[in-house]
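The protein record quoted for completeness.
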Amino acid sequence: MILERDQWHLGYASLLRDCRGHSHSSSDGMPHDPSPQPTINTLGQALLLTSPTADALSSARILSYMLRADGVPHRIKVCLGWSRLQKALGGVAANNAQEERDVPHETSPVRAVLLVGMGADRNLSRLFPPSTCRVYVLDSHRPYHLGNVHCGKSVVLFNDRPVTIGGEEGEIPSDGDDLSGRDSESSDSEEESDSEDDEHDKPIIDDDLGEHEFEEEEFHDDDDNTANDRLDDSHQPHDTPPQPTKRRKTEATRTDHPPHSPDPADNLAKHVDDHPNPLDTTAATADLTMTQDSDRDSPPPSPPPQESSASQPTFRELRRLRRNRIRLHYTSGAYHASPSSWMAYTLGAQLRFGNVSDLLWLACVGVTDAYIHGRLDVSGYSALCVDLKRHVGRLFPNDMVDRVGRAVYAEELEDLNLGDNRGDAAAGGMTQIGLSENGRILSQLEYKFMLLRHTSLWDSLLHSNFVASKLQLWRAEGRQRLMELLAKMGFPLESCRQPWAFVGVGLRRRLRERIDDCAEDYGLENVSYTGFVRVTGYKSLLSASDMVYAVTALLECSAAAMDSSSSKSKDDIDELLSEEDREEKEIVQAFNVAYDALNTNTFMDGGVEGSDLSNLVNGGNMTGTTGLGAGIRLAMTLQKTIMSTARNLVERNSIVRLSHFRYAYLNCSGSGVAGASSAVVTPEHNNKDGESQRQQHYHVFAKPLVLSRLAQFLMEMHRENGKWTGSKARPLVLLAEKPRSGTFMVVGYEYAEEAGNVVRNKFGQNFELAAKTMRGTFWFDSFDSNVVEVAGKDVQRFIEQLHYMMDSV
């Protein structure tokens, strides 16, 4: 069920009733739905499941604040993929089943599940039977799975943009009997008996619409057994979480529905020919009735010609038209809507939490995260910035950016000391006061420089994606142009290599005054964008982009987070864990560290400098192993790794161009598939030896978000030099080796012709079709459809099959 923006508060009220054990009535304000609803009669708790992104963590913090304020007990867990989500929801179902049988259990039953940053594009109605539990989804992944839209109130989707359901012009197809793929191909053969597609003579019962459509329309060859062989239940659109599956030939009598299906309606799918869906017949009858009613007031028409009956669509034509719309809904490509953190804060503003500045700051961080990592285009980001700036002006009406900045950097005191007369300021009627604007949020123009407030100007420019791609800083000529730019603006190199917080006041002002004048000569147009900054005390300013880079680094470099809190005894225990358990332990530890770094104030005694916003100092010594300071330090190291890897891939000609895409391998050694090694800088954390250091680096690089950032920088590099534009423009596929599991992480990145634009990603369906037409081991476990994990022995054939498949479509 979809809740529009003005109905979000009703969904939250429903969540409170679920957890407090109140039964729902018809007057609860929720849209009416005739389907059976969960029966909730006892007190329970809420389970908040989040994906490992800065946006999802910010949203989780906002929702946690609201639930604590309303006295709702809740737990927060991170889910790295769909298999872990299945495990978590399976535990919820088992716990609730024990509660129904009056079996004693340790924790209170879960009455509401909140999915943050995941779930909208998967069929949650089949994930587990929500007999006493309701699922609430705040997710930006699109398109919606139709099973979630039409499953009643058991799944509640918080929708950010108005959509129309049903009708000829509706964005979302109407409800029907084929949303879960229960149509048999015998019914399709009956509908298309006059067409040339009569070779489908075996009934196939599938539990997912998207797979059913692909199999029916795309594969009409002699390898039907392989094409119809079920690879994974989580393909787009998805029904159940994935399990690693090995491809092998099956008997011709095999069906595609999972054995022991919990849905008894699957048994009725075989009779779809004899008993068509009454919803579809009603729709067809309604169309005919409308046509007849529209002619009642007109004069009696002349006898229609004999061929007039053919002008009205038949039932088979209506059904085929609807199926085509469903196919278009799923195959148009994956994209992202508004960030979940903005949705969570907007929900809080509809209630009574709109005046909490910490929640507004978290929303700014989440929106910036979506913009930096290419999930939000320039126009979408600008629209959300307008809304956030409205809230900033409401909470902090006297938006004095210059005054606050001068007080933070002690510029007024320095100006007073530099003047000829120390009483000039007082003579002018101004009184010098210490200004503490701790927690104040400001909206101002931010430069596309990397962590400028926490490093030197030289390093910030050198490791900025925007500046590096514009000036081609991986070449000697590009660095020479950068030095010319600094000289033209009047910046000595010695001052440029000092921490920015310690640079003189005159130089800091000169950057704001001169950068726009010199930008056009060096191709640096649009070097600034609307950003958000928070005052962290008397000494520091922190931008939302700085927070995003720090939290993302803490999340993605999970091995470093583990090393920071591990001991020898823990290392000995970790050796006994399986690869899956070890990876889960690492991501949980990294999640806890990143979640704490988002905190605005730590109430622990003896807090380390830079552990959170309260004690962060610009240009300070951030020596801690956890917290915000460690994340900022690790973010710069990770950015250097990404840029050096991109440079090595280009210099070694490791990127291969095919007809429909480019691809490149990132191997641990020269004996890999590509026959080349990416000698890159390893993130700075403790390692036992060189081999473990190299493996940890490449394991960090084999993370979907880091790999996507590498692909994004490679695209920006070649877009600016003109080598990947026009007829040479192609998407990019990167394959990073995971040495501990012997697999490759594969990420497909679509190409945008203009910087700042975001295009729909169709690699999800392309990866799925390529995997269906070959034998191999694949894991479609990521929340992003353009990510797949492939066994090392199958990765080369997978790329070849992907090329052949895209070439034949």
Q: What stands out?
A: Residues 396-422+435-556+592-647 form one domain. The mean pLDDT is 73. DSSP finds 29 helices and 18 strands in the chain. The chain has four domains: 2-162, 185-286+313-331, 396-422+435-556+592-647, 652-808.
